[in-house]
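Summary: Need help interpreting a holo structure output

Steps to reproduce:
1. Submit the protein chain below together with the SMILES for fe (ii) ion.
2. Request a joint structure prediction with the ligand placed.
3. Inspect the structure token block that comes back.

Expected: a single structure record containing both the chain and the bound molecule.
Actual: see attached output.

Input attached:
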Amino acid sequence: MKILGISAHYHDSAAALVVDGVPVAAVQEERLSRRKNDAGFPLNAVEWCLDHAKLDPGDLDAVVFYERSMLKFARILTCTLRAFPQSWRSFPHAMKNSLGEKVWVRGLIASHLGVDRRKILFTGHHEAHAAAAFLASPSPRAAILTADGVGEWATLTAGTGARGEKTTISLLREVRFPHSLGMLYSTFTAYLGFAVNEDEYKVMGLAAYGRPTMVDQVRKVIRRTPDGAFAIVPEYFEYQTTAARSYSSSFVDLFGPPRPSYEPIDVATAEGRRFADIAASVQRVLEDTLVDIARALQQETKLPDLCFGGGVALNGLANARILAESGFERVFVPPAPGDAGCALGAALYADRVYFNNPDRDIPDHPFWGPAVDAAHLARAAREDDQHVDELDDAALVERVADDLAANRIVGWMDGASEYGPRALGHRSLLAAPHATAMRDRLNRDIKHREEFRPFAPVVTAEAADRYFDLPAGGARLARFMSGVFPVRPEWRAGLAAVTHMDGSARVQVLERSMAPRLHALLEAYGRRSGIPVLLNTSFNVAGEPIVNTALEGYSTFRRCGIDALVAGPAIVTKRATASAKREHVA
Ligand SMILES: [Fe+2]
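--- attached output ---
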């Protein structure tokens, strides 16, 4: 059975193809369209998935959209009318966004793909999140938690899943819009001058510089309810009535003036510390709330495994606390817990639940995207008069380890690209993890990021415990970089480029079987430096999606301070220009 899953029209559109119960292709539209967080209908992604599997749209048994668009429209309409007359200004905006395309999704898909309308199905938005988290995990029976901004009505769901002869996903309880942990965090993201739906992780990064001194104020805007859930206090928010602003003047009275987005944050100033303290406070309240909800779910279900999905599951600090404090032995967060991952979740949900197909084990990796073509890279680099070597695997790994040990920055492309927001070893920039000078160089020459944002390390599974303080189950959470854990104090100075202000790191723990070449490289680097750890950051420059093709990698390499570029057997280095040679001598 061939099922195409689609997520679109909010942010991070994607397509995923499931054949006979197993994913064969999945990619975010932004990787192909080259527009970051592309929310358009994912025509490029659909086309690539079908091409990759050598299928025509007519071969598909079903096309599944990741939310019930009529329900979502009903929610927007209801909220708008409830808030009338304050909301009348936002109504045309909401209508344009919703009515324009989202509601008529069936016709849109049928016309774009030329498939029979009867083959077009829908899942609930949180059912798609739940399926992405549970059905791709190795757990046969698990508690399921999802949390995001909002789907149709739900913003958080809790339930259970069972795989086997018959697959069930039972979402037993939900919290409904406007009460939303995702919207709460996004509101603070906007207040702190960052881009909503994109820069939430900057709030988490900033939190490490602050102290949670304003937890009481945050608890004034979101209250716990007697049933163990939570409710926002509407007077502090405006997102439920207008698309123009997420927080109200009462919110500003409580927390002070918001940060203008164009002003840099300097945590050495009182104003900078205020923003860091607010970030730390909302982060603390988010963590506490999730831990409480997860603990109650564990006590109710008595299950050892939790599968956690939705955009809020990108919060690695919260995930680590859920693992440590909720009573679950293992916490599974998929590589794409956000809306992009819903394309795969929707396809899997339809396969197991709508069509009752038998359960299948899903390969435990994120590499479902287009493969890199090393021959393209070698040809382009030679035509551009750059230096190209083609080496066998063993020689290549030793050569790159030498480069890294000499403090060179390496663009590393290997096989199929990652599905989800994180580079997990197939489209990565790699560098020595030891000195803050390397972090600063990456920020200055390539990533152009705020100083307070940390870089992440990758470590071999065998050595992870030596450098990082991982609780039981921590390595699993770190498989897809989903947890933030302490760097062991004795290694913080030696791993300064990847240790955050508070001594933590969002580490990736790499098993050999997931990315054998990167694992071999870590071991080779360990033989040189004594530490099998590398700095691993996504292969892109600021404002661009992660590179997809060899030529995109090459173009990025030529434009910025990357010293060497690898794909397959090819390794490209820049021919030293006269001025660069002078710099080296200097
Ligand atoms: Fe979502």
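--- end attachment ---

Reviewer comment: Residues 581-586 have pLDDT under 50 and may be disordered. The first helix runs from residue 29 to 33.
Status: needs-info
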